[in-house]
Each structure stands twice: as structure tokens, then as C-alpha cells.
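Note to self: user wants both folds in one dump. Writing first protein now.
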Amino acid sequence: MAEIDKVLPNTREKVKVDPQEDLEIEVLNQQNQADPGVDVQQNEDGSVEIDFEPGKVAASGGEDHFTNIAELVGDEVTGRLASELYQQYEDYRASRREWEQAYTTGLDLLGFKYTQRSQPFQGASGATHPVLAEAVTQFQATAYKELLPANGPVRTQIVGASNREKEDQAMRVKDYMNYQLTQEMKEYDAEFDQMLFYLPLAGSSFKKVYYDEMVGRAVSKFVQADDLIVPYSATSLEDAEAVIQRMYMSENDVRKAQVSGFYRDIELGSPAYTQDRVHEEERKLEGTTKTMNRSDQSYTILECHINLDLEGFEDVDQETGEPTGIKLPYIVTMEAGGRKILSIRRNYQPNDPLKKKVQYFVHFKFLPGLGFYGFGLIHMIGGLSRTATVALRQLLDAGTLANLPSGFKQRGVRVRDDAQPLQPGEWRDVDAPGGSLRDAFFNLPYKEPSQTLLQLMGIVVEAGQRFASIADNQVGDGNQGAAVGTTVALLERGSRVMSAIHKRIYNSLKEEFKLLSNIFAQYLPPEYPYDVVGGNRLIKQADFDDRIDIIPVADPNIFSMTQRIQLAQTQLQLSMSNPQMHNMYESYRKMYEALGIKNIDQVLPPPQPPVPKDPALEHIDAMAMKPFQAYRNQDHRAHITAHMNFMATNFVRNNPPIMAALEKNIMEHISLMAQEHIEIEFAGQIMEVQQIQAQGAQGPELQQKVQQLNLQMEARKAVLIAEFTEEFMKQEKEITSMLDSDPLIKLKAQELDLKAMENYRKQTETTERVNLDRAKLVQNRELQEEKMEQNEDLAHLRAETSLVKQEMSNKAKMRSDVMKRKDVKTLKGPRE
């Protein structure tokens, strides 16, 4: 026993003691009771385990990287950590208390509930002006339709040089992600829709992207701004020292996570009744309240993304093996009511030497704020909405008081059934002690609703609508044939605020898609669930590499269908002003796409691609002034001979445009014929270089060899083109000399040449005149539209002036009538 006493003070690890007598076990138990820092456990085989540091964490190693570390540490460590994290959570909430107060107060401005007011009098108006609700609804409807189209919100962009392989890969990635978002992730549409409603209110909303082991797929959950708490010093999710998400889970859901092994299987007790003023205010707007029923209670779970230096799991130097003191990223989940840790997991990839934090949250901002949280419409036009509400209530109250007058009556006047209000058309008996009945009553001087107050409310509402860009008549109600400059000016003026907001959402949506793509490549099955184009189904994980950039399908510069139609219409208008310089098919197609027309190919058949034609068809195209071209592997000499024979006719010789088209085609045939000869002559050298490149060889010697081969081929091609052109010139001269031998034919030909030149000159002048007239028409239409706009403005001014004059006349007339009534009363008074 003395030997054991000697070992106990110096031992820092668990030791096993094989007691020979029961006395030794009793002594050890007494030692455990005397020293609470020593833990003595008796095993089934009679041996004893002594732990002199029961709270010390075992060294890491051997366990899975993503294992629940809370199972490996003692209750002393988890209890201390839970207290520290909960205190941080309370401190972070206290630092943003004013933000919560502004948000909850602003929710009342939506006007979702009608309040019964007793001040300044019973039954006063409790209406709320809908300027804020209108702005929120308009933004949500526009952004939802634009950012989440029916075919899917994802498109891809190739990074670097494009080739057929990358194009097929980009198509597969886009189709698969849109398939997951629209088909597999059932909650994505509803969560995104709800997020777009909260975003303009609070100014900030969040999406949490992660792989859910309970459902076996990726999820993207909407997280309200009041449920994501960050330190006071944080400016973004990346530099935040800690990010705490508050969740509410039912008792059954928590039990499921415990049984599956995701949480520690510990006793949590009954859910504590928690009250959050932000959630309470939101539930009041819905018309629901929280009850004390146990079935309505839920656990408050805090998921803390934080950096920790856990004992036993420290960051160590690779050379010395000593702890560095650097905090590593962890995800600690705790139950707030009982302050109990449910899980502790590493939040960095196992193969990451830098141990960077894995980001799960995406921050959507409506307007950039002065700190971490963004500004919403509650912050920006909340004052205007409150002012409009006050003005509206004052106008309604003034109308109520003017229509239901009240005042004073003499004490001696008795009215039968005076407790009942008078109904329209009712006459009631009155007992007057004497004198005039009119003198026994005095009405309070209530005025009609003020026109000045009405105009003031209109100015306030207009200012709020202008800021929120909900008064989109600047873009949508304009003339469909408006001038280009006018349309661009209207678009720029009416979409400044909305365009900036849309770009911020676009960038956040891009970050969300990147997180989702990483999850798809890492966790989901390694093959596509359907047949793919351009590869086999087993290349899914290889497709999600750095060669393809995943971006939203929405255009960050366009936020509404109206704006897209206006831009497409402007483009079509520019194309029609000079059709020779534009692709009219693409201009019309973009217009149909902006209108949302389906099956465009049936309405607008695509142009047929050019195909090789025989010389006779090419002659027909030349006479019809249609383009035609030469192709490889044609009988070039036969085409050249046919064209030269056709050029010898008087009709063609007297039509310079046809001659130019045929000569152009002959030069194309000469170039292709020389190229085909070169490929045959240098076939051996070309094949040798291709074999070297196929073996993967690279270097300056290979590049120099390829460059020399190209120079030799170009030099030889130039020689062949010169020879073929010389043959063409000789053959043309022979035909020309044969036709010019007869003087009459020569004179006739010259006469026809002059006529052809004159016709060509007239045709050119006509084309230029038509283009000039078209430009003048466009300019005149712009001037007329500007005049019409000016006339409309003048008409509005005249109308407003007339209304003001009419109002002044009505007031003067009313004042005159009042004076006349007063005079009549004065005259009638003595008679009565």
C-alpha cells in the first residue's frame, strides 16, 4: 500500500492496480473522496483504474476527421465550453439590440394588421399606408421571376480557351445542377421565394448550403437575419471570428439526430420556454401567438461556427510537434436551455494544410450597410412610410369628424332618446325652454380633409416609390416605338437603384451555386442519374473542376421583363436602320426571347446553313444578288471554267455586280485548290508533327519546327495561287479577244457596258437615297416624340393650373355662400 501512495502524487496517466485485498480498494475509494481531482473506477475483473486528471482530453489520433469530438472529451470541458459560448451569444445579441428594435418597429409599417385606436378619439382610423408593402411586394415579384426561371437558375461559363470537350462538359454541369435545384431539392423554390420577401425588409438574408445526412442530399436553407448572430466587429462572413446560427428543433427531431449519431445521446430535459421579440412580432403579423402547450415547445439549438484551441486537439508544428496556439475552425452545437454540448466537429477539410474554415453561409444584401448587416426598405423609407401613414390617418379622421359633428348644448335642452344617434332622415322631438333652437347648440369647428395635407401625403408617397423603384411607368408605360436615346435615358433613370440591388443578389447567388457544386461533386453519387451527351455517366465528379465556372442564368444588368423588352426593341430599331450591317434574324429572335415566346423556330424559321451548289445554281444566285461561296473537295477547275464561260455573255459583261460576285467565287476556288495541293505535298511532314504533338512533346524546338513548316506551306501556297491566277487570266483574255474581234459586237458591248455602269450608278444612288430617307425618318420620329413628350408635359401643367384655378374659384364661391348665409341669418335673427 505504501508503494501505491508513492506512485499516486507523481502519476499523470491512468494506472491499473490489482488489489490483493479489499482493504486496498477501500483505501483507494477514500483517496477518491478526499481528492475530487482523482477518479477511481473498479473493473469487472477486480482491477482498478485511477485517473488523476479526469477532465483532461485524450490526444487526438485514430478517430475519423469528422467525428463528434464531444464524445471524446469530458463533461468538464463541454460544460465550460458551453458556458463560454452562451455568454458570447448573449453578448453578440446585446450588441445588435438597436438593429432588432428598428426591424421589429418597422414591421408594423407593412399594414398587415388593423389596429383599433382610441386616441385621439374612440374609433379613430388605424389604417397604414401601403407604400412599404407595395415596394416589398413589387421587388419580390420582380426578383423571383427574374432570378429563378422555370428552366433552372444555373448557367455555365468556360474558363480559358473553349473547345468541344469543354462545351459538352459545361452543358452536362448546367443540366445536372438545374435538375437538382428544380427536381430533387424540393425546398429550394419555396426557400428562395421566402428569402426574397424578407430581404427588402431586413436588408440582409442568408442561405445555408450543406449536405444533410438525414435526407441524403444537398440542401439550401433560408436563414433569417435575426437568427444569424455575429460579433460586433464583424464586417463579413469571411472575417467574422464567430458565426452563431439559432435554430428551433422539435423534441422528436433532436431525438432523431441523437439516434443517428449526429448528436450526443444525452438527457436534455424538457424544452425551455423561450421568447424572441423578433419572432413574436412576425407571428403577430401572421395572426398567431405562441402557447404554453408542450407540443408547441421546441429546443433552441445554437450552432456556433467558431475558432477554438481545444485541449488534446491543438494545432501542432510539423517539425517540433509542439502546439502552436493557433485556433482551428470548429462547429459546436449546443442546446441553449440546458447549456449542453451536442456535438463538436472540425470545420476544415482533412487534406487542407492551411486548415481554412469551410463556409456554409451566403449573405444576400439589399443595400450595403455601415457594418455587417445591410439596410432594407424599413431603414431607408421607413420614415416616409410612417409620415404617409400619419397623413392618411389624419385625413380619414378629419372626414370622420366632419361627417359626424359634435359640440355643446345648453343644459336646459332635453332631447328624447338622446342616447341613440340620429339616423339619416330621422326627426326627433326636442324640449326647449325658450328662445331659438339654433342658439341652444354649438358645433365644434371641424374642417373638411385638408387639400394641403393630401398633397403633402402625395409628395411623401411619391418620394418613397421613387426610391424603391416601384413607379416603373418610366420604363413600362412609354411608347413602344420610342427613340433609342429616349429609351436608354428612361431605362437608366428608372432602374438605377434596382440594377444595383440586382447585381448584389447576382453575386451572392453565384457564391451559393459554387457551394452547391462542391457538394454535388463530393457527396452525391459519382454518376449522372440519366444519360448524358458528350461522355459516359461516370464522369460526373470529373466534370466539376476548375475549367467550368458556374454562374446564375440571370443577367446582372437586367432585372425585369419590361427592361429586357425595351433593350431588345432598341436593338431591333438600330438593326432596321441599317439592315446591311446587322444580323436581322438574331435581332428578331432576341425580341421574341425577351417577350417569352415559346417555340420561336416555328414562328421565325432559322436561316438555312449554306451548302455546296453546282455552277448553274451559283449563276442564279449571282443574278439574284444572293451570296454563295466555294467549298473544299469541289471540282474547282470545272467551277472556274463554267463561271468564265458565263462571264463571257453580254448580260453578265454589262452587269458589274454579277461580274464581281463571279470573280470573287473564282478567287475562292483558286485559294481552296492551292490549299488542297499543299496538304498533299506536305502530308508527310504534317503527319510527323501531329505524331509528335500526340505524344505530348512540347518545347521551343517543336514550336520552331511547326513555325518553319507553316512558313514553307504559305510560301508554296502563294506560288500555286500565282500560277492558277495566271492560267485564269490567260483563259479570260482568250475569251475576251474572241468576243472583241467583231467591231459591231465591240461597239454593242461598249454601249451595253455604259448602260450597265449607268444602271449600277443609279442603283447605288437609289440605295444611298433610301438609307438617307430612312435615317431622316428615324430622326424626324425622334423629334416628333420629343415634341409629343413636351406637349404632354405642357398639357399636364395646363391641367394642373386649371385644377388649381377651379379649386380657388370653388373656395371663393363657398366663401361667398357662407357670407351670404351669415347675412341672411343676421337679417332673420330680429324677426325670429
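First done. Writing the second protein, which came from a different request thread.
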Amino acid sequence: MTKPAERPATVATAANAPWRVRHWLPRGAGVPFALVALAVGFNLWVLRDERLLVSYPNDSATHLQMVQWATTMLSHGMLPFTHWYANLSLGSPYFVQYQSASAVLIGLLGLGVGAPTAFAWTLYLLLALWPLCVYWTARLLGWGRWEAGIAAVIAPVLFSVTGRGFEDQAYTWIGSGLWSQLWAMWTLPLAIGFGWRYVARRQYLFGAVAFTALTIAFHFVLSYLLIAVLVLMVFLKPRDVVGRLRRGAVMGIASLVASAWVWLPWLASREWSAPQQFQVNTHINDSWGPGRIFDWLVSGQIFDWGFGAGRFPIVTILVAVGVVACVVKCVKDERARLLLVMLAVSLVLFSGRGGPNGASEGSNDLPHNGFMNFVLNLVPFGKDLLFQRYVGGVQLAGLLLAGVGVVWVAELTWRWLRASEVARVRVVLRKPWVPVAAGVLAIGALVAALAPGWSEAISYNNDNNYWITQNQPAADASQGAEVTSLLDLAADQGGGRVYAGEPSNWGYGFTVGSVQVYIYMMKFPAIDAVGFTFRGFGLMTNPEAYFDEYNPGDYRTFGVRYLLLPVKKAPMVPATLDTTAGQYALWTVDGVHGVFQVVDTIWPAIYVTRGCNGPADDPCENTLGPQSRGFLDGTKPLQGLYRPIAYDGRAPATPTLTSGVPRGPAGTVVSSTDDLFDGRASATVVAKRSSVVLLSAAYDPGWTVTVDGTPQPTEMVSPALVGVKVGPGRHVVSFVYRGYGSYPLLFVLALLALLCAGLGPLAWRRRLEAPVMRVVRSRWPRLARRR
């Protein structure tokens, strides 16, 4: 039998090389890294003024105050999580009830460089460097440098109609100031990337656990998206579902233990936190429904908002191409299936509870999608979620899909050219410079195609930088100095809160530059104020919205001693002018001496339900605000007559007056010291009869009280204040807040979980896997080689 002739070796040329894109685009990592560097450099330049110290007109004012307060606590050797946060809505254990890990972390940095500097620079750098996170995430998910680089270069041009996603609008000075979400914008993608590596390839358990725990710590809402993606990730490869379930369980349990210091105290205090009632059944909580979301998606308003005024929806088109590419690849490519799952889950969550035809902006009676409302209410604590925030997940998945789509089109184009029957084309393809030129032209075309996005980002951030560098600093130097002098005077006089209007009345137009005065006062952690509503989570959050500035009794209830008004505005209640400064005036309210009162309590009690503990089809609504409205609008606060609160099924305290009409005040406050910022307040009182000493601070079971040195039980008094019964005579009453006390143990558990995640796989390989593999090699050598 004649041996067949051997085929001659094929010479590798540009024309017959494999068609994968890495063989025809410029080789090495230089160009993909150059794309990342372009995106980062662009951000560093256009966002450069975000690093400057300036007053904030949005949620950043609250986050900056949290950082300042954390720095103060840490400088005195105290843990912020265990203390009373007095500055919002008459106080609450805010660092437990809200995502505060980022504030404490930067509070530590503030010990060295100052809290405002640390805050501004982290805002600037986290936002500017985010393309690095996008690149790293794509690489962790197994995509090549080109897919990752292209996704990164698209990241700076995202704009959505909601302005709440992973985009400039969500974080900048003229945007929303969602600083805590900015931290999760980094940890969420990396948690998905490391999580997939561990579930699919048994790599990077420590990274998966660390970034999952950080996402839970940084942002409660986005952690739900992460958990949903991680759970579905297990089922992307049915043949390995048992092993994936095992690895997913290991990662999930370790992540929960590592983050228990966040969610366990929150769970313990959740009953005493208040859902913000005016957001219930609105697009803020429930989003806009699948109809509106789908319309935004296909019309480009999730990725290219503004194109109707001149912006071409290039990012939306690239995302659509990426979806097609992943649909084509998904049968054989798990990575493609994962991106499609990320997009689908994000779209479902972003659609929220809203009706299928969408939700009306600002409506408080939105139609619900019955099926989605039922499903989402089955999710643990799902009634607390803000579904509009999941636009960030849609944008993250879209970026990765766009990178995949661009490379897929480039590969198909190159393959089509190689298969061309035109002789001249085949000759040209053999030229060594052709792949390089083709790659450069393709990248140039992509960058040019993104020109509408570059232009919009430049225009938006130039406007943002104008307000930061020219408008607001001048106002801070002049008007801000005037307001500061008045607030310093109020602090020196001591005792009581400041009122400067609120968003629903004249306060919205009462400003320092472009910052409302009720927000501007957040710069001063030592100033306690009423009026910046719906920023806290304590029980007085909803009653604060019903503060009646024309009712003198409400000033006593809320402990408002000072009015900060426009110089030409007359006080709404009897008050004495202290002084003026420029266009601002400080008044002292007559009859209010601080945060203590001696009052009578009367029937009937006010019965309150928290709402979120009810059936699945009930709205998550705390009735404390509406139930307190009648009391705050009436004359009882001025008369010193308060009602006990029966909270969420608990029995109300027995009133001090069960019948008859009181003759004169229940008693007087002789002297008081107010250090609510340290969770302490005390007063010397003289009670004429059995009465209640009332502290104008939100009720919380962490409050303890002594009367003449003897511990006494606290009680909840309308609208949601903390008080204690005293008998006739002179008494010294001291209130002290004691927060959650198990943090040291939880920190140790978190550290142990991270150590196990980091060292456990190494120990397994050295102590267990090696002996097992020796047995396998000796008995089943083929199986060992296959492995």
C-alpha cells in the first residue's frame, strides 16, 4: 500500500491566518489599554473641578456631613455605627439604617487630609477612573482585551433620561449626588466578575467574597441585583449545576458572614425605621413599568439620552449589536449567556412594579403591574427597594454587550474579506501593514462614532464646572459667610434647632448661591435643623413633613428655637429678632427654650402600623406621618397635651391625665444640657403633677433614661418622640442612647470569613487535593491527564 503524500506546510500570512480579531488588529495590549487610557484621561479632564471644595445642592450634602461626622467620631476613638446621628429628622441610628460603610471608610481618610477634601477627591477619582473597573470586569468575565477596552471607552458617554444610573448625572454637582451608589458602581461589576470566576472556574474565591460583601455594605439596593445575577449564574451550565451550587453556596455563605456587620444590625433596627411615605406608589420606589422602560430602551434614552436634540443613539445601536452577537454565541459560549442574563435581570428590576403602560412623573397613585407586584413582594424586604436605581445594571450590561458587539462585527468583516473571490482584495490582504491599518481605522471609526457622546459629556461637564468654579464659590464667600455668622450665634446661644424653610414652601427659593439654606446648613455638623425632609430613616422622618410653620406648638414639639429667614420676611410665629447679616436674619422663637418639655399625655392614643410587615399586597407605608398630622395641625402641642403612640401592635403607655382639664402647665424646665450629637441630653425639671418629660428626639428603643439616678422605662409620645414619666416635684432626668453592641464580634466574624476565603483554597490544594491526585494518577492515569 502506497503511503499518501504529505501536505505541504501552510505559510501563515495575513490572508490565511485565523480570522479571530486578535490576529488582524494591532498585536499586544497596547491599543486596548490606550482605549482605556483615553476614557480615563477624558474623565479626569472634564470632571476635574469635582475635586474642588464647594457647597453641594443635592444628596452629596448629606453624604459629606456623614463623612464629617464619622471623622469626628473616629478622632475621639468612637465607632460611628453605635452612636446616635442627630442631624436629620430629629435623629436616628442613621449609620445602621443607611449604607454608611463608605462614609466611615472616607472618615478614616479624613483624619489625615480633612473630611471635605477626602470626600471631594474620592467623588472625583471614583467617577473618573470607572472605565478601569469596566475593563477589569470584562476581563474577569473572560472577554478579550479588545472587548474590554471598547466597553471602557464607551463608559464616559452614557446618559440616561432618569439620571440615576452609572453615569455622570448621578454623581456630579448639578446631578443627583448619589455618592454612596458610586462606591457600589465599582464593587458590583467586580463582584459579578469574581463571582463568575469562582462559580465557573473555581478561581478567586477571596475576590468574590470580598467584593460581594462590599457591595452589600455600600449599597443595599444594588446588592439585590448582584444576588439575582449570582444565583442565575449557577444554572448557566446545566452539566455542572451540582458543583456550581456547591461553590455558589460556599461563596454566598462566606459573603453573608463577611457582611453580617452591616445587615444584622440593620435587621435588628428595621422595625424602628420608617419607609418614606411620600415615595410609596411613585416612580421613585416603583419605577415606570415595562412599557415605559422598553420604549426608553429602543428609543435610546437609557444609553443616549439627549440624542433627540442632536445626539445620535450610537451606544444603543452598539448594545443592540452586542445582544445579537451574544444570542448567536450563547449556545456554545457561557460568557454570552451571562451578559444576556445580566441585561434581562436588570431590565426586569428596572421595570419594577409600574403598570405595563408606564408611570406618570410625580404621580402618587401609579398603576401597578399585578404580576410583578406580587413577585417582587415575595422578595425579602422587597418593599424597601428603589427600583428606579436598577438602570445602572442595564447600563453595565449594555457596556459589556457593546464591546462584544463591536469585536464580533470586526471579526465577521475580516472573515468576509478573507473569503472574497476578488483577486486584488486577496493580494492586498497579504500586505503586512494591512492588519495594522485596518485596526487603526476601525478604532478611529469607533471613537469618531462616539463623537455625539463626547460632545454631550463635554457640554454637560462644562456647565457643571461653571457652577462649581464660578457661581457657587462666590456665593459661599459672601452669602455663605453671612449665614455662617448667624449659625455661629445660634450655636453660641445653645439649645434648640434651626428652621429655614423646606422644599415644599418658600425655603426652596431661599438660597446661598444655588444651594437652598436648609441644605447649606448640612455643612455644619454641630447645627441641628428641621426642614430638609425625607433624608433620614428614623420614626420622625414622616411627621417632619407635616411640621406646620404657622403653629407655635409645633416649634415646641420639634424643638425649633431659631428661625433663619430672608431679611424682609416676617416670622411666621411670635419671635424676637437676634440680628441680621446681609439678606439673612436670625430670630428666636418665643416660648421655646430647647429640646425638653414637661407635658401631659391624654387619651386617645394614636395607633400606628409600620406597613412593610403586612401582607404582600399591602403598600409599604408607615402610617405614623398621616396619623400624626391631625395632632400637629391642632392646638394640643401648644397646650402641652400629647398623645401616647401604640406602635405596630404594641400597647400604648397609660396617659398621665385620664380625665378632666389640666390647670396650667404640667411643669417647667429649670435647666438643660443638649448634646444630642453624642446621644446625650439631660434636664432639671419641676413637675406640678404626674407628667412626662419629653425629649424632642425620635423614639428608638436604644434610648435609656434615668430619673434622679434611677433607670426608668421610656415611652413613645406623639408624633414619635421619646419621653419618661415623672411624679410631682423636682427631678434630674438624663437620656443616653446606647446603640447596637455586638460590632466587635461581627468584625471578627467578617475577618475570619475573609481569611477562610483567601487561605481555604490554598489549604485545600496543599493538604487535600494533592494526595487525592496522587491516587488518581496511580490508578487512573488517563483521567488525571484529562483533568
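Dump finished. Worth passing along: The chain has 28 helices and 19 strands.
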